[in-house]
Every structure is written in C-alpha cells, then in structure tokens.
Structure prediction request, 699 residues.
Amino acid sequence: MSAAPSLANLPVTALKGVGDSFAQTLAKLNLFTVQDVLFHLPLRYLDRTTVVPIGDLAPNTSVVLEGTVVRCDVVMGRRRSLVVTLRDETGQVNLRFYHFTGAQKAQFAVGAEVRCFGDPRLGASGIELYHPEYELIQPGAAYKPVDQSLTPVYPTTEGLSQARLRKLTSQAVALMRTSPPAELLPAEINRRFGVETLAHALAYVHFPPKEAPIPALVAGTHPCQQRLAFEEMLAHHLALQESREQARQETAPRLPVDSKLLQDFYDSLPFSPTNAQQRVIRDIHADLSQPQPMLRLVQGDVGSGKTLVAAAAALAAVGNGWQVALAAPTEILAEQHKRNFERWLAPLGFQVAWLVGKLTAKQKEKTLEQIAHGEAHLVVGTHALFQEQVRFAKLGLVIIDEQHRFGVHQRLSLRDKNAASGAAPIFPHQLVMTATPIPRTLAMTAYADLDLSVIDELPPGRTPVNTVLISQQRRADVIERVRDACLAGRQVYWVCTLVEDSETLAAAAAEEMASRLRQSLPELQIGLIHGRLNSRDKEQTMAQFKDGHIQLLVATTVIEVGVDVPNASLMIIENPERLGLAQLHQLRGRVGRGNIESHCVLLYGHPLSKVAKERLQVMRRTHDGFVIAEEDLRIRGPGELLGTRQTGALQFRLADLERDAHMIPLVHETAELLHTYNQALIRPLIQRWFAHQQHYVKG
Ligand code: ADP
Ligand code: MG
Prediction:
C-alpha cells in the first residue's frame, strides 16, 4: 500500500463543487468516496468524432450526420409523426419525431442546415433516425468542429447531468496521479493485458485519448477495459464465493420429505415424473434435509417440467410445517402457478395464497396477515413478494421461477423475511429455476454461489414442433390454416412483434392484427392479450384461453415465459426476424406441450436478408435450447444469452459475461491463487467493486 492518503477514505466532498446536498445526490449512485467516483465507469461512449456521409449510413451504429432540409411534413399513420428529410451530396435520410412541437416543425424550414446525432434504424421509409439529437446551423455560419475524442456516458440519476459527472471523474482521475489505487492483482495480470498500471487503465477508460482505437473502445475490447472487466469479474466471483461460504455457515430448517405425502402427490398426477425430474428432485430433497440453506439452480429447457420439481420441493417444506414463497416474473405466470399449486396442494390439506400488484388494499392486507400468521402455506407472487411489508411466520423455502428476470439482490432479499428467528436467525432454503441454457463455465461465474442441477430430458410423448418459414405474402394461406386448426378443436397463438422495444406500439400492432383476424375469421372466438391491458383483463383472457372458450389468442411477446396451455398446437409468429433465437425458442415452447402434433409458422417479412434467413433456419433444424443459444451467439455475436444485462440482474459496470467469457478460466485461476496466497487482498477487491451492493457483501 502506498503512503499517500488512500482515495478510498477520501469523501466525495473533498472534490471541488461537491457540497452536502450534491453529496446526497451522489449517494443515490452509491458514490461516497473519491475511489467510488473512479470506479464509476462509463456505460458506453458516444462517437461524435466523424461526420458520416448519408449514403454510407448503416443501421445500429450511432453517427453524426449533416445535411440540408429538403422536406418537412407531418405524416399520419399508426401514429402521427414529423418527418424531416435531410440531404447531402451522397444521399438522403429521414428523421422521425413522434413527439414534436410547432416550433420544432418551423425550425426545419426547407434549406436549413442541420447536424444530428442518433442511431439509424430500418424504418418505414428505409433508414431513419428516430428522435435524434440535433443542432441547427445558423445561416452562413460554419459547422463547429466535431469532437476530438469519444464522449463517455455514465450511469446517472435524476438531476445529475453527464457534464457534471465528467467534471467529477476528471478531478478524481487527476487526484489518482498522486495517490494511485492499490494494485490488488498479481503483477502478472497487468502484463498479460499489456497495461502498465491500474491507474493508467482507469484514466484511459474515463477519458480515452484522441488517438484511441474507437471500434475497440465502443466494443469494450480495448486492453484497458479488459483489464478492468477482468478485475470486476474476479471481484464478483469472489463476492459470490464469499456469500456462498457465509450461507453455508447459516442455519436453515431441516426439511426431510415425508415420503407418504410425496407418494400421494405423485399418485394425484396424470403422469409420472421423468427420470430427470426424479433425479433433480432427489438432489433437492437431499439439500433440504440438511441444516444449512440449500442454494440450488435448476436449469431445464422450456417444457421440461420445472413446475413439478418446484412442487416436490415445496412439499418437503409445507410437510414440515414451514412456508414457501414462489416468485414468478409476470402476473400471468403467477396466476398459472397459483392454479397449479392449488390443484396439487389443496387436496393434501395445504393453503395457497397469492400476492400480486393488482390486489385491492383490503385483499392485500388479508393476504399479508395470512402470510404473517402462517395460515398461507405457499405464497405465489410477482415482484410484490419482495416488498418491505411482507413478513413470513416460518419461511422455509424460497423458489424463484425464471431466474433471469430477477436480480440477485431480489433473490437474496427474500432470505430476510423470516420472523421465525429467535436468538439464532434461521434462513430459508433457496431454489432457483431457469430455462435459459447457460454453458457451464458461464454458469459457474454468473451463479458461483449456486449448485447446479439440470433437467436434461423432456416428458415423453412430445412430438417436436414442426417449424416452417412462410413469407407474409402468403398470409392468406396461413389464415386458412388457422381456421382449419381451430375448427378441428385446436387452439392457436398469433404473436405480434415490433422493431422498437415499446409495449405501447406492440399493443397497438396486436390490436390491429386482432381486428384484421376478426374480419377474416368471423366464426372464431378471438382473444387479445398484451402488456397494456389491466391485469384483470389479462387474467380473464388467459383463463378463457385455457378453458378453450377462446380459440385464437392474438398476443405480444408477453406470453413468452412459462405460459402452459397444452391444447394450443399452432403458433404463428409475425416478423420472427426481429427477435433473438433464444426468445423465439421460448415463444415456440408455448406449443408442443400436449401430445398433439404441433406447428410453428415463422411468418417473415419481405425481403429477408441472408443472415436473417440463416438464423431462422436454425429454428427449423433444432429444438435444443443449448444448440439454439450457441447458434445465436455465433450468428449474432454476443448479445442476449443471459438476458440479464437489460434487467440489471448482474449489475456489472464494465464486464460482459458473454463478451468476456474467454477470461473466465483466468478468473477462476486467480481466485484460487488469492485464496491460497493472498487472502488479505480479497476483501478490498470486493470492496472497491461491490462495497455498496448490500447483499453481495455482508460485514
Ligand atoms: P417448464 O419447465 O417450461 O416450466 P412446465 O412445468 O410448465 O415446464 O411443464 C410443461 C408441461 O409438461 C405441463 O403441461 C406439465 O403438466 C407437463 N409435464 C410436466 N412433467 C411431466 C411428465 N413427467 N410427464 C408428462 N407431462 C409432464
Ligand atoms: Mg415454467
């Protein structure tokens, strides 16, 4: 350690311009010390260093472009929008604004010069920029020079501008010159990444010099970023190991399963568990009979029957007089679980309650009471379960379904909801379920605190879903096919997708599709479900579909996770090329659940690029979630395998478990080294990356 004062102990108020009230704003970002500011790394960069000729625009990379307004119109359509056409010597492009003022419209007079910055996308009129940032150039004035280096963009909070954050980081970087942060990794690591010091890497990443290689920085593959990402992954790994070690020291209730009860449950089912289900259930029951908390991840492809495994686990708890909390990511799924568990557990004498956002205040109060008094044996819920007021009398087991939709913190917060703690606290066992196929090494790092069981077999009698690619030009044929299927007593999903990730637009598209289909298929009962409906309507529609009153269900991708209607045997997916393969796989998993032959029609838009076609072909060839995930990775590049970054489940600043997967072996190796030779460095390492993330690090 150096003799200079450590920035880890220097409060943010030591920085110029930071008073007490500003410090409070910074606290919202968990920035308390100057070291915290140093480790507050850019999320991404804006490249405003070159002006791209309009003729060279390609979708999905941010650009600066300049041009003259040649047209400006308000266009009616599904939504009213202002469309501004810009031209330079190489071509023309449309800017589209859904929200705009009269003044804005007036600004874009024909002949005006505009510089704008945004993400080109494939839109209605070819390449378009939606809501770009823009700047009008005064007549006769020259364009200002473009930026000389990349602009960092930091995670921020309300009332804190990027400019102000940049001022702070630049002060912190300057201070670091005299008090560099401690090098906590073996010296070998800097050499491996070709980086002189940690301080150098930090400074570079905050303020990339002019000559920095832009594509590498934008992709996050620059050696300085990789050096930091490595340390972050290592710290994460060590933190999870530590939390696992701590959990092993804790006390959990012993919950040996009552074999008579289990047998009664199996006897009530119309089928018997697969070998894979039985094996995983045995793993779980073995864990549950121990006085330390179980921490187990069950991975099983869509349709492999994870719900049954969860039920068998729950039986061990309720059979011993302990409660179970089951968290599901959506209300639709929570509702479905409630029905299943009621059907399974009520005959055995157990009471199932549910807790979701839409309950009335009165219902909620009653449910909370039942939970607190232990009258509810199993509680199914959405995120509402994590709320502060929820207290269990004797919580013995926590089950999280579709883990990737939740954060590590949410899972861990349920641990502390147990009132049944006298002198010595008692912690619940934890069971986490996911359909996301994660390669084993990745899983070892992403979920280093969990043991892993895999359900590697589907229930018998499933015929693989026959998947076909059909162009939208043949829509009429597909509609006929839907009619035939419904008249033959089958049920059908019609799924609408959208380019933009907006549930509002998706809902509008689904509504439009439903009314078109009602016109073409007047003899069918057609339902509609999307994220914009209130939960009562959603629930009612799902129930009617389950009961067979609705034959054709038009939906957005809200039905993606978990929904189970075995009689549904045909799924039409509009514009499947807009979705990732993993998501298509999840969607397709909604059919092929009964023993009728099922079909999935990928109704693609015209024309389809070669790459897009190649991707969709993968769906025809295979049903194996692992193969699909790997193909997705190969064709699209890293992106959405874990599905966690968007929801922030892993909360990395810089690391990307997919992009940086190649470093995982080195992470494991270095962790071992530290455990063997340098245990004293482990705490400070975790501290500087995760100090303020409560549940990662205790004590
Ligand atoms: P997922 O793993 O995707 O959550 P589910 O638990 O929803 O799968 O189960 C999918 C369907 O398979 C359900 O209809 C369920 O009743 C059925 N199922 C589960 N286990 C078996 C089994 N061993 N034999 C036959 N059908 C089963
Ligand atoms: Mg499920």
